[in-house]
Amino acid sequence: MANSGTAKIIDGKAFAAGLREKVAKQVAKLKADHNVTPGLAVVLVGENPASQVYTRNKSKQTVESGMESFKFDMPADTSQETLLGKVAELNADARVNGILVQLPLPDQIEEHAVVNAIDPAKDVDGFHVINTGLLATGQDALVPCTPLGCLMMLKDELGDLQGQKALVLGRSNIVGKPMAMLLIKESCTVTVAHSRTRDLPAEAREADILVAAVGRPQMVKGDWIKPGATVIDVGINRVPAEEEGKTRLVGDVDFDEAVNVAGAITPVPGGVGPMTIACLLHNTVTACCRQNGIDVPEA
Ligand code: NDP
Predict the structure, then answer these.
(1) pLDDT of residue 5
(2) pLDDT at residue 157 above 90?
(3) Under a CB-based contact definition with an 8 Å cutoff, are residues 230 and 209 in contact?
(4) How close is the Cα of 3 to the center of ligand 1, in Å?
(5) 102 is annotated as an active-site residue
(6) Nearest Cα residue to 45 out of 90, 89, 106
(7) What integer pLDDT is reported at residue 4 of this predicted model?
(8) Across 119-146, average pLDDT
(9) pLDDT band for position 122 (50/70/90)?
(10) Residues 119, 123, 125, 233: which is the catalytic one?
(11) Peptide bond preceding 104: is omega within 30 degrees of 0, i.e. cis?
């Protein structure tokens, strides 16, 4: 798979727009055929500016896709008990098919306690231990949105992934680990690398598929990449821009170098990022169908 030219740029923005369109059609069909409108509840605790932007976008896109959106903004000093009370209320609310509690949570609240209090059938972030376990054992799960978006783009680009050597760089619960599980399910040969990995560039050079989720700006260099490999850059890092006082977003991959070696690559911004919310909407439709005993539409 030698690549003498420039990599194909995988357009996550366009892919996400297509997925949102598909979701909107599925929502319209659920309404018409079953008189069911999927509902997504988004809970934000505190005033983290990035989380405010994310939750606003999630709610906006939920409405645009024809679903019901329920948004709850709770003060930063909310107790764990109060938040668990809100989760219990949403678990019991039949209009709510998906529940998302925006992370990170303030220090007085234990994240695992909240995530595991969400009804697994409504856990559209896919972080509940039940969904993690279902994914790990190859069963139908609600799958974390970011790795799900990465997998959709990989399958679109490469078709059948079986036998491919994949390197997942990062082992977080929200990206690295579920990404590895998904790739194992697709019959890839998967290596998971992290901060204690001995020779990262050498591991990376073996990979037909490289998924970078480290949170280190432009760490993956061009000479780490196997010629022709497919590179999925999950990283979102804000760095100083050339213009004084301004910043810009870069990924975990040095795009300018990688684009000359890879076969295909996702840019930052405009790659994985837009897919995450589109997959959240997709997961909400999936959750709604399962809760109502309706066949889950193909993504
Ligand atoms: P975490 O900080 O939770 O995990 C980072 C992982 O990278 C860890 O496993 C860590 O290893 C590993 N790592 C850190 N430094 C190095 C290093 N120098 N060499 C090798 N491995 C290293 O991050 P997330 O998984 O939550 O996120 C990763 C990136 O993806 C971030 O930039 C984040 O902003 C972005 N992101 C983007 C999303 C999107 O929608 N596009 C959604 C979620 C995240 P160890 O375990 O050993 O510490």
Answers:
(1) 53
(2) yes
(3) yes
(4) 28
(5) yes
(6) 106
(7) 46
(8) 97
(9) very high
(10) 125
(11) yes
- In order of 43, 80, 99, 125, the CA distances from 75 in angstroms are 11, 12, 18, 22
In one-letter notation, the amino acid at residue 271 is G
Is residue 3 very low, low, confident or very high in pLDDT (cuts 50, 70, 90)? very low
22 classed as catalytic: no
Q: How many helices (H) and strands (E) does the chain have?
A: 10, 11
Task: Walk across the sheet containing 8-9 and list its strands.
Answer: 8-9, 264-265, 230-233, 209-212, 165-169, 189-193
pLDDT digits (tens, 9 = 90+) for 159-180: 999 999 999 999 999 999 999 9
State the CB neighbour count (10 A cutoff) for residue 220. Answer: 26
Q: Is the separation of the CB atoms in 182 and 135 below 8 Å?
A: yes
CA of 172 from ligand 1 middle (Å) equals: 6
Measured distance CA(124)–CA(91) in Å, rounded: 12
Residue 172 corresponds to which tokens in the numbers above? 């977080």
Q: Which residue ranges form the domains of the chain, and what is each CATH number?
A: 35-120 (3.40.50.10860), 144-272 (3.40.50.720)
CA angle 97/102/108 to nearest 5° reads: 120
Using CA of residue 107, residue 113, residue 116, residue 122, what is the dihedral sign?
negative
Mutate-to-test residue for ligand 1 from 195, 199, 283, highest number of ligand atoms within 8 A of CB: 195
Beta-carbon contacts of 102 under 8 Å, excluding residues fewer than 6 positions away, are 42, 43, 44, 45, 51, 54, 55
Cα–chain-centroid distance for residue 19?
14
pLDDT interval class at 299 (50, 70, 90): confident
Q: What's the rounded Cα separation, in Å, for the pair 145 and 150? A: 9
- In tens, the pLDDT along 26-62 reads 999 999 999 999 999 999 999 999 999 999 999 999 9
pTM score, two decimals?
0.96
